[in-house]
Write a structure and sequence with these properties.
The protein is an alpha/beta fold and 265 residues long. It has eight helices and 13 strands. Strands 7, 8, 9, 10, 11, 12 and 13 form a seven-stranded parallel β-sheet that branches.
């Protein structure tokens, strides 16, 4: 395998990993092919990073692994790249979904970015009884997930889904996610019991099963929602400790706990 030339000093740039310019693209990646970037990515390489002909870039599309490419035509609006060789094979994300109640914009960006870094395969906003933010920009969530994948060296980007009402989603769950079990973060659970609960579930056959982590809004789930969730055979409650967390913190903490005990950590 060949590696691209070192890019300019990009350590502080959010789209670079290990000093290499790294981009997510939609097109197919194969040896000897050429690829023309969209205007924003062309601007990023040529104007922001000041890269020129012959400089190396890493590309991935979520299907064909990671590829080394070189800039053939450094146009500011349509930069042309030539693909050299695959540097990494395609790797799947851990089969964990994140279902979360939306929060305000800056913290919503944080959830999308950090959930991507934690390896979530699907990011699904859910509208609960106490959710305050109900209008979302799916393209903004997707852009944050893409930039996080570019930065942390992933070769796949999680799927960002449209927001859905919690009750409606659960009614359709067997069709939407057949066989997938739900771990919901319940402030009513005894603090300090998360690890024991997950280890117990693993002993009951949950280990290796596809999972979804569900995090409620900052006001918590309503009593009716907690009762609905607890009545389901495919759902288990999870404690995140004695401290009250913001919703964005809780989402990432839950992914970390699950990843450690039942996932890929």
């Amino acid at each position: 395998m060949t590696s691209p030339n070192d890019a300019p000093d990009t350590d502080d740039n959010p789209r670079c990993a290990s000093g290499k310019a790294r981009l997510f693209v939609e097109g197919d990646l194969r040896g000897g092919a050429s690829l023309t970037l969209e205007a924003d990515q062309s601007h990023y390489l040529v104007n922001v990073l000041r890269m020129g002909a012959g400089d190396g870039v890493l590309l991935f599309n979520g299907r064909d692994g990671e590829w080394a490419a070189r800039i053939a035509e450094p146009h500011k609006k349509r930069c042309v790249l030539e693909l050299a060789a695959q540097t990494r094979a395609q790797e799947p994300l851990p089969d964990i979904w994140l279902l979360f109640a939306p929060v305000k914009k800056a913290r919503l960006d944080f959830i999308a970015q950090k959930a991507t870094e934690m390896g979530a395969a699907v990011i699904q906003p859910v509208i609960t009884a106490r959710t305050v933010v109900t209008r979302l920009k799916d393209e903004r969530l997707q852009a944050n997930a893409v930039e996080a994948a570019e930065q942390c060296g992933l070769v796949a980007v999680p799927e960002v889904r449209e927001a859905a009402k919690l009750g409606s989603l659960l009614e359709r769950w067997s069709a939407v996610a057949p066989g997938r079990r739900i771990l919901f973060c319940d402030e009513g659970e005894r603090p300090g019991a998360a690890r024991a609960a997950l280890e117990r579930l693993a002993g009951e056959g949950w280990r290796g099963a596809p999972l979804a982590v569900l995090v409620g809004p900052e006001g918590g789930f309503s009593p009716e929602e907690r009762e609905m969730l607890r009545s389901r055979s495919d759902t288990a409650a999870l404690s995140l400790g004695p401290r009250i967390m913001r919703a964005d913190t809780a989402a990432i903490a839950a992914l970390a706990v699950v990843g450690l005990v039942l996932g890929d950590w």
